[in-house]
Amino acid sequence: MASDISSLLTEGRPSASAANRARRAAETAAFAEAVLDGLARRPRSIPSRFLYDAAGSVLFEEITKLKEYYPTRTETKMLETFGAEIAEHVGDTETLVEFGSGSSRKTSLLIDALPSLDTYIPIDVSEDVLMDAAKRLSGKHPGLTVRPLVGDFTRRRTLIGAPRGDKLGFFSGSTIGNLTHKEAKTFLENAARLLGQGSAFLIGVDLKKSLDVLIPAYDDEDGVTAAFSLNLLSRINRELDGDFDTARFAHVALYNADKGRIEIYLKSLADQKVHVLGRRFTFSTGERIHTENSHKYTVAEFQELAHSSGWRPVTAWIDEDDLFSLHLLQLS
Ligand code: SAH
Ligand code: TRP
C-alpha cells in the first residue's frame, strides 16, 4: 500500500536516488489518498502533516517570527536560560534525535549546551527544509555528524545507522500538541522503543492560557497563518490537479474548551463545486475542512500523559510569563 512505502525513512541525500524517488512518489500517493478520503468524509478533514510542503514550511517559518506567535521565541529563550540545567541531566549523551525538526533553528542552542554530542539525526516529512537545515547545522557545528531522515515520525520505525548508546530525543514547537492524546501516547511509546532504555526526551509543550493570547497566535493580524492554512488548498491544486479557488475559503481558528485545543479549519465562503483528480466535491457556504489541532496542556496533564506512555517525568521548566513548558522525561 502506498502509505506504507511513504512511511519508510530514507536518508535524505541531494542526489535523486531510486529510494528517494520512490518515497516522493509514495508521499504524493498518500497525499492523494488522504485528500480524496478526507473530502468525502463527514466531518471533512485532512491530516496536518500535509500542510508542510516546501511552500508550507517557508510560511511556517514566517509564523514563528510573528508578534502574536509566542511559542517559538519563548521556547528559544527557555533553551538559552535552561540549557545548562538540561545538560546536567543529559550531559554525556552522544546522539540527538529530533522529531519534526523543520528549520532546526532552536536545536543549535541545545547542541551548544551539550558538548559531548557527536551525532544529530533530524527527522521531518518536509524534505527541502530538512536538507537545508542539515547543511546549515553541519556548517555551524564542525565535528557533528548530521544524518537527516525524511519521513513520518508517527510511524513505528527503527533508526537506521544510529550509533549505539543513550540518546536524547527532542520534540520542539509543541508539535506534540498537534497529535490527539491517544496519538501522542502512541507516539511517546514508539519513541521510547526507538530511543531505548537509558534515553531522555526533551519536549516543548504549549500551556493552557487566556484566549486573548491564544487565538491571535493562530489567527494573526497580517494573515500569515491564514496563508499557511490556505496553502494546503494550493498544494492540492499543484499536486493533485485540483481547482480550489483559495479566495472562496477562509482560515478559521477556534478554541475547543472541552478538548483543550485550538482547532484549525478551512471554511467555504460560498456554495461551490471543486474537483480533485477528476472527482467532484460539493461545498455549501460555511462548510469546513478540519486541518489541525493544537492541544494545550497543564504541566500535570502532560506529565500524566508521559507517565502513562512509559516515560518518567524528571523536570518541567516554565517561562516567566507562564506561556510554555519544556519537559524532560527519562526511560529507566
Ligand atoms: N520543530 C520546529 C518545527 C515545528 S513545525 C519548530 O519548533 O519550529 C512542525 C514540523 O514537523 C514541520 O517541520 C513539519 O514538516 C514536521 N512534521 C509535521 N508532521 C510530521 C510528521 N507526521 N512526520 C514528520 N514530520 C512532521
Ligand atoms: N506546532 C504548531 C502549533 O501547534 C503548529 C502551528 C502553528 C499551526 N500555527 C499553526 C498549525 C497554524 C496549523 C495552523 O503551535
Q: Which bin fits the share of residues in helices?
A: 25-40%
Bound molecules: S-adenosyl-L-homocysteine, tryptophan
- What is the beta-strand fraction? 15-25%
Query: What is the number of strand segments?
Result: 15
What form results from the Cα inertia axes?
A: globular
Largest sheet, strands/sense/barrel:
9 strands, mixed
> What are the low-pLDDT stretches, counting only 5+ consecutive residues below 50?
1-8
Cα separation of the termini: 37 Å
Helix/strand/pairing category? alpha/beta
What is the ordering of alpha helices and beta strands? HEHEHHEHEHEEEHEHHEEEEEHEE
> What is the number of helices?
10
Oligomer description = single chain
What descriptive keywords fit this protein?
single chain, 332 residues, alpha/beta, 9-stranded mixed sheet, 4-stranded mixed sheet, 10 helices, 15 strands, disordered N terminus, binds S-adenosyl-L-homocysteine, binds tryptophan
Molecular structure report:
The two termini are 37 Å apart. Helix 3 runs antiparallel to helix 9 and helix 4 packs parallel to helix 5. By secondary structure, this protein is an alpha/beta fold. It is built from 10 helices and 15 strands. The site of S-adenosyl-L-homocysteine (SAH) has 19 residues, from helix 3.
In a nutshell, what does this entry contain?
With 332 residues, the protein is α/β, with parallel strands linked by helices. It contains 10 helices and 15 strands. The model is unreliable at 1-8 (pLDDT under 50).
